[in-house]
Design goal:
This protein is α/β, with parallel strands linked by helices and about 220 residues long. The protein has helices at about 10-20, 30-40, 75-90, 95-100, 125-135, 150-155; strands at about 65-70, 70, 110, 145-150, 170. The strands form two sheets. It has a three-stranded parallel beta sheet with strand order 3-4-5. It has a two-stranded antiparallel sheet with strand order 1-2. Helix 6 links the parallel strand 4 and strand 5 (about 170).
Amino acid sequence: MRKPYPRGGFRRRQFLAGAAALPALAVLHVSAAESKAARDPKALDGTLGIPGPYPGRVIEVRNPALIKDGVKDRAAVKATVARGMQELTGADDAVEAWRTLFEPGDVVGIKMNPVGNPLANTSSELMLEVIEGLKSAGVKLGDIFVFERYKKEFIAAGMHKAVPEGVWWGGLTPEDDPTQLQIQWPGDDPVAGYDPDEFVTMELIHHGHDPKDDRNL
């Protein structure tokens, strides 16, 4: 569903709180038992918001079955996300874990990253499992916004094709949000819009070329 972003009861604080609440998959591995023991019941009281009930807590989940012969395995992605959410929250199952962080009425932004497409961008399969998790917590499809800062890069990577019907998607580009920096200008001048005293462009240095030799630049 192509729109700039959800309207109605949408508030910037809710959007940022929802986006920030998603778990990070990085460098710390803990067991579900350790996660449950570390949970502070007081942190779960009251309305959810930034920094969330588990500030600074990072979970790494590894699964060699995620990719087979270059193809992402949706079932493996689902199991891996569920495992990460349970270890983060100490919940007994994935649905309980998602409900620890989200509730009906939340507006949630899912930030994609097309940089490095097609080999190193955000997985659409991961995005779909996050949406499924949000749905299990009672978040409506119309309250979910899948986005990238620059809409053209989002579309060029084909990410919009994977967004389920009913979910909002778009970019925070100037045509959608006038507060965002314009990156494409007439003549493709890369310095336009930037302070020329602070921003410079350099020619690509070819293999074997001495970077200190600028005679041919």
